[in-house]
Amino acid sequence: MGGHAPVERYNPYTGRRVVAGVDDAVPTAAQLGLEPPRFCEACGRRMVVQISPDGWWAKCSRHGVFDSICSARR
């Protein structure tokens, strides 16, 4: 019908699909900015994560690299 399919999103800390109206608990460390995302928000796949003293980067095999600088979480 010409409309776009809804875009699925995934919780970057649990990997579960985000469903409107359903709460998905975010770990306390993640809320405080102490934990990097472990799952891709676009596809829910587990990412390779590298943590350094001044930040982190995470790589999804399908969607590329996410960096703490880009997300202002450093």
Plain-language structure description:
- The chain has 74 residues and is mainly beta.
- It contains 1 helix and 3 strands; from the N terminus they run αβββ.
- A 3-stranded antiparallel sheet has the order 1-2-3, with no helix packed on it.
- A hairpin with a 2-residue loop joins strand 1 (48-52) and strand 2 (55-60).
- The longest helix has 4 residues, at 28-31.
- The protein is globular, with a radius of gyration of 14 Å.
Which structural class is indicated by helix and strand composition?
A: mainly beta
- Strand and helix order: HEEE
Give the DSSP E fraction (strand runs of 2 or more residues).
Answer: 15-25%
Q: Please give the alpha-carbon distance between the first and last residues.
A: 43 Å
Biggest sheet overview:
3 strands, antiparallel
Helix count, DSSP H or I runs of 4 or more residues: 1
| Alpha-carbon Rg, integer | 14 Å
Q: What's the rounded overall pLDDT mean?
A: 85
Q: How helix-rich are the residues, as a percent range?
A: under 10%
Low-confidence stretches: none
Number of E-type strands: 3
Spatial order of the strands in the main sheet? 1-2-3
**Form type:** globular
